[in-house]
């Protein structure tokens, strides 16, 4: 079991022009990691993978477990083995991110970020399911349902990536959330920690698997600048 | 032996501000592939890896075999198993690149490119060895020795990478050359094929290994735009 590598299927960039068709099964994805994040075929919600189980936060607010035969256009996973564990005092997301990058020297290093605990405030959003012919990522996510909670027990999971890899993935933080009672989840927009445990896992290796048998992927004419702008708009 | 993955140590981006210290040994690198390209510690020339042997093209025009304990700041390797083999008629580099991308549908796919044959013309350049404190890549490569040959038997080896990965590596083609008699080598600036065999190997997987124990790497404040411009200037 390789605990030094992030495995990523697809690129964030391929979502930008609307390549939302699933190109890896959840079953196959979970052979590459037990923990991670992603989205489902058709940009159908937000995926949270914890302890070998993959969950979908849907646009109606419901959380369900994903079946092995379901497919994803984009996901990042790893086998969990944190090298840092620390207690978090009261903090907001902006302070948290600055502090984590500085304290654990993440600037140019891939890392998994996991925070388990009680959150005074949580705010998420969930990408709404799209039908082909697909719109662009920015058009598809212009209006998204948002969900909020107070004094919620749950887990933040996701990644920090060096900004050099913006486009291949999200440069900086890309975090999802799932509450312990599976009543609240999605792409994390903001939070305040009440008390929680932070776990950080540094990676020397980033492994990208591309859908090179997918006709739409082969044909797409990507534009790096458009991808950069779209990620900053849609994934922050 | 994994023939579906390109293994890359370091990023092209880290060379841009001048992180030229070697951070992987040639011996370790060759466990990840028998074929590839790179540069040595101190930006000392151009590395060409063929059939499990790593060679250095030096700024004085000499070619020598690299020893296992020598180190590299950046290199890409793979285990050779081409999926395409084709005869090349008379062609120039510009025509060649356009044709290969189109015929073998490379636009968004990583591929190894190998051309064995006789070249009517070959032009290479070789990065000159630097001493710490290092200059930037652009400053270090402002003046570089160039080498030319006519009716040369040899091998072009290198990669095509999707432009989304510019910065992590060179977006587009990055090709080196080594003559059969080891009298001419370096970073390829131009060529005309007399007659040659092209081999293309498509990869679904790109694996980047970062020097996360290197203090200079951890501390560097990279600038994506500067990296993009510098690669276009120094690596074309």
TrEMBL record, chains A, B:
<comment type="similarity">
    <text>Belongs to the alpha-acetolactate decarboxylase family.</text>
</comment>
<keyword id="KW-0210">Decarboxylase</keyword>
<keyword id="KW-0456">Lyase</keyword>
<dbReference type="GO" id="GO:0047605">
    <property type="term" value="F:acetolactate decarboxylase activity"/>
</dbReference>
<dbReference type="GO" id="GO:0045151">
    <property type="term" value="P:acetoin biosynthetic process"/>
</dbReference>
<dbReference type="Pfam" id="PF03306">
    <property type="entry name" value="AAL_decarboxy"/>
</dbReference>
<protein>
    <recommendedName>
        <fullName>Alpha-acetolactate decarboxylase</fullName>
        <ecNumber>4.1.1.5</ecNumber>
    </recommendedName>
</protein>
<dbReference type="InterPro" id="IPR005128">
    <property type="entry name" value="Acetolactate_a_deCO2ase"/>
</dbReference>
<keyword id="KW-0005">Acetoin biosynthesis</keyword>
<comment type="pathway">
    <text>Polyol metabolism; (R,R)-butane-2,3-diol biosynthesis; (R,R)-butane-2,3-diol from pyruvate: step 2/3.</text>
</comment>
């Amino acid at each position: 079991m390789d605990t030094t590598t992030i495995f990523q299927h697809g690129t964030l960039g391929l979502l930008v022009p609307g390549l939302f068709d699933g190109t890896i099964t959840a079953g196959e994805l979970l052979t590459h990691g037990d923990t991670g994040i992603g989205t489902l075929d058709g940009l159908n919600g937000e995926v949270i993978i914890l302890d070998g189980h993959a969950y979908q936060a849907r646009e109606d607010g419901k959380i369900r477990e994903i079946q092995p035969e379901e497919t994803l256009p984009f996901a990042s996973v790893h086998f969990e083995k944190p090298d840092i564990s620390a207690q978090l005092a009261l903090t907001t997301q902006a302070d948290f991110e600055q502090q984590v990058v500085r304290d654990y020297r993440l600037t140019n290093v891939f890392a998994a970020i996991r925070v388990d605990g009680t959150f005074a405030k949580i705010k998420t959003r969930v990408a709404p399911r799209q039908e082909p012919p697909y719109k662009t990522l920015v058009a598809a996510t212009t209006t998204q349902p948002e969900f909020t909670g107070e004094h919620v027990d749950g887990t933040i999971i996701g990644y920090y990536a060096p900004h050099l890899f913006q486009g291949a993935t999200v440069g900086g933080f890309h975090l999802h959330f799932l509450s312990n009672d599976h009543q609240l989840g999605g792409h994390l927009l903001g939070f305040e920690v009440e008390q929680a445990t932070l776990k950080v896992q540094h990676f020397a290796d980033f492994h990208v698997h591309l859908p090179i048998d997918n006709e739409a992927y082969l044909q797409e004419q990507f534009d790096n600048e458009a991808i950069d702008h779209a990620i900053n708009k849609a994934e922050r």
